[in-house]
Write a structure and sequence with these properties.
By secondary structure, the protein is mainly beta. It has one domain: Head decoration protein D (Virus Head Decoration Protein, Chain: A, Beta Barrel), CATH 2.40.300.10. The chain is 7% helix and 32% strand. The chain has a 4-stranded antiparallel beta sheet with strand order 2-9-7-6, with no helix packed on it. A 3-stranded mixed beta sheet has the order 1-10-11. It has a two-stranded antiparallel sheet with strand order 3-4.
Length: 111
């Protein structure tokens, strides 16, 4: 009998509670979002703060648009961004405290 062993990694769950009223927007991430300093990174992890133009948030809360719902890969930069009415699992989000404060005004809660 032949078999193969495959390992799958799971995306961390960004939503803490699924309310059914999360307000998601489709967005295409800018190529610069996949840069970690000057090194190309193959993915933007779920829970990353994003600007409206698809670039990473500056981290100071001034330009944050939403939080990525899923891991997004450079070969397909299309993703969904949570922009309002959601409860986010703070442990699985890379958003800075300033970005979290800015998103709180849109009723995005971090627990």
């Amino acid at each position: 009998m032949k078999f193969s062993d495959t390992s799958l990694s799971a995306t961390p769950e960004v939503l803490k509670r699924k309310l059914g009223a999360e307000y998601l927007k489709e967005i295409t991430l800018d190529a610069s979002a996949f840069l970690d300093g000057s090194v190309l990174s193959p993915k933007v992890p779920a829970g990353t703060a994003i600007q409206k133009n698809g670039k990473l948030s500056s981290g100071d809360g001034s330009n944050v648009y939403g939080i990525t719902l899923n891991d997004t890969y450079d070969d397909n930069p299309n993703t969904s961004v949570i922009v309002a009415s959601a409860v986010i699992n703070g442990a699985n989000s890379t958003a800075t405290s300033s970005d979290r404060t800015a998103l709180a005004s849109k009723v995005v809660l971090f627990e």
